[in-house]
Amino acid sequence: VVRAVEHFVSRQAMDIAGFGIRQAELFVERGFIRDLADIYQLPWDEIRRLEGYGDKRVENLRAAVEASKDRPIHRLLTGLGIRYVGAVVAELLTQHYHSLFDLMNASPEELSAIEGIGPKIAASIHDYFSVPANRALLEKFARLGVRVAETPPAPVEQAAVQPLAGLTFVVTGTLSGFTRTEVEKFIKAHGGKVAGSVSSKTSYVVAGEAAGSKLAKAQQLGVPVIDEATLRAMAEGRR
């Protein structure tokens, strides 16, 4: 449970400031946390009586926990610790499922039909939500006021010309001129698709600084690797 809590509160997941491994160990040991949702019903009056937990520290931690309730749902999905579902895959899934209850009830066939979600990831998600305790956990999050659904974003305005139509891109590393969300919108606006993992169906990998395993996979499969400038040139029809 301690490691699960540590992952859940981490920056890539629910990003709860001031909540780290020491708090996870202490609160689990004291019986305050038995499952991840218990983070949202901690006994703050009892915590105030613990050594080193004065009023200011407790209020700061409590405020950070409360603030995390409104994180985008892909962060909650990341925090659940489902095998193969890291931050990138979670964000991809929540572009298709705007409610985690809809995702919970999706079949492996529906999941694997999403570009970038193969049978292995689909099976892992389905297996996780086939466990009654995990379904109950999501319901508990909802009861405690944690965001489990969000309004679908407005449709991306499409460019008049679609130079990237029919192409599938995977983005890896840090780009200088785009955030991850911005580059995905840019690709889609020019007709392309964005996948979360590299496969033989990938047309191009867009690699930035500190590109990791996806770059290695692209090289292994012989998938062309381009930089940000080349992507822009392709979108503008200059390549």
TrEMBL record:
GO BP: DNA repair; DNA replication
Domain BRCT: 159-239
Keywords: DNA damage, DNA repair, DNA replication, Ligase, Magnesium, Metal-binding, NAD, Zinc
MF terms in GO: DNA binding; ligase activity; metal ion binding
Coiled coil, from the record: none
Protein name: NAD-dependent DNA ligase LigA
The species this protein was found in: Caldilinea aerophila
